User: Fold BQ2448_189 protein from Microbotryum intermedium.
Amino acid sequence: MLSRSSCLSRHPRSCPGAHTIIPSVTIPFPTAADATLVQRVVSVDPILRPSELVRKMSVEAALLHIVFTAQSVRQARVALDHCLSDIKVVVQTMREFGPESAVDRKADASIEVGLNGSWEGVQR
Assistant:
């Protein structure tokens, strides 16, 4: 007989006596390529307790779908918070270093230099 933990990792919806929490999130992106990139980057981060939490990510058109299956509300909340934080960092990185960001960075160069305490770069 399977233990509750191993049962959850294999068949989360059919575990006897298991309370499963299944939150899901759908996040729209400008393009399917952006959604796929975010999925690939975030999916590298492994789930720390795969016997207690399952994360499934998929991309449909420009939508990133994420479904968690957890044994408790706390696990679901922590996993969702962690995943959304990871996605936020990836999106900020894409905005900063993506193909269109070169124009944006030049426009904001004076602000960056000012924050660093030197205006020499702006005068050149």
In short: The mean pLDDT is 75. Helices lie at 4-10, 32-43, 73-97, 101-107, 109-116, 120-123. The chain has one domain: 20-116.
